[in-house]
Write a structure and sequence with these properties.
The radius of gyration is 21 Å and the shape is globular. The chain is α/β, with parallel strands linked by helices. Helix content is 49%, strand content 16%. The two termini are 39 Å apart. The protein is built from 12 helices and 9 strands.
Length: 335
């Protein structure tokens, strides 16, 4: 008998994608009798719960439960779902993701082979809406200029990494290192994986474990997402000062340099020259990358779309990081 698996899903206002997730879980090659889904919903205001209820009606023999997330945050949702879980193995998924049919089977196999303490796979980024902006954002979310060395968004080899999306782990890991940190409203997965690695565990990425992830559909949503990422990344780095990576340091350094040069250019010609040079070089890099991707994909709109998407990602992430740093300047090292 294979181990019992609990799939945990934080959820809020996901009417557009929740049924796709549930249908994808139903299509898993892993035995249905050894799976359950626990959705921690933060009182969705759209038709999310109606669509979950329709799925339950259509598939009454499939184990699915909803728990109310009164604390309304993602890490709280994850902890509440884990508390309600019956499984020996916990697999996290998101309500705007669609796992491949063998996703659960491959996660369990990797854990049973001892590949890692927490295992995960790669994202296939898809547009979160219709139109050239949504498609451009999806391309940017899988481009090295947009995500740096985040291997789960690229085309990696199997191996140990800093973090994986979602993740699958044995329930005993929670007893060992604790649950998700509810003081972090974003970056809770990276923080969790940091504790996994600090405890001597291995975070393992297997590119055969694949899921579709729907990117944001508008520049406004993208800016809010990456501003939030940057803000909470600094809050995490206050505790784990040795975990920062070059890809995380570049956006705030870029935004800070723009701010300093703009101020200095009021008085100094050299500052105006350096500011112009920095902006020109930055735009040339983005234009070159955008033209290359547009030609490869035969989609001219990506010249402007990819440039704007990456620009929004960099400026929002960097600004959020700097704002968080200014708002809480003291560093308290953890671990």
């Amino acid at each position: 008998m294979p181990p019992f698996v609990s799939i945990i899903v934080p959820c809020y206002n996901e009417q557009a994608t929740i049924r796709q997730l549930l249908d994808a879980v139903l299509a898993q090659t892993y035995p249905h009798s050894q799976m359950e889904i626990i959705i921690a919903d933060a009182f969705s205001q759209d038709h999310t719960r109606e669509r979950i209820n329709l799925f339950q009606r259509d598939h009454a023999d499939f184990s699915l439960r909803i728990v109310d997330n009164e604390r309304l945050t993602i890490p709280a949702a994850l902890n509440l779902a884990i508390e309600s879980a019956r499984g020996e193995i916990i697999i996290r998924l998101d309500a705007h993701s669609v796992p491949n049919p063998e996703y659960v089977e491959r996660c369990v196999h990797a854990l049973e082979e001892g590949k890692g303490t927490n295992v995960g796979g790669v994202w296939e980024i898809r547009p979160g809406g219709k139109g050239w902006i949504a498609e451009s954002i999806a391309v940017a979310a899988a481009h090295p200029l947009g995500v740096g060395d985040a291997m789960y968004r690229l085309n990696p080899q199997a191996g140990a990494v800093d973090t994986v999306p979602f993740g699958a782990f044995r329930r005993g890991l929670i007893d060992q290192i604790g649950g998700f940190d509810e003081t972090l409203l974003t970056n809770e997965d990276y923080e969790f994986n940091t504790r996994v690695r600090q405890s001597g565990g291995v975070v393992w990425l297997d590119p055969r474990i694949r899921s579709i992830y729907f990117a944001r559909a508008s520049f406004r949503e993208l800016a809010r997402q990456y501003g939030r990422y940057g803000f909470w990344k600094w809050r995490m780095l206050k505790r784990y000062t040795n975990t920062i990576r070059w890809r995380q340091a570049l956006p705030p350094a870029f935004v800070a340099s723009l701010i300093v040069l703009v101020v200095l250019s009021i008085w100094f010609f050299l500052a105006r020259w350096l500011l112009s040079l920095e902006i020109i070089l930055y735009l040339l890099i983005l234009i070159a990358a955008s033209v290359r991707v547009a030609l490869r994909n035969h989609k001219p709109f990506l010249i402007a779309g990819l440039l704007l998407s990456i620009l929004v990602m960099h400026l929002s992430w960097g600004s959020g990081f700097l704002f968080s740093l200014i708002a809480s300047p003291s560093i308290q090292k953890h671990g």
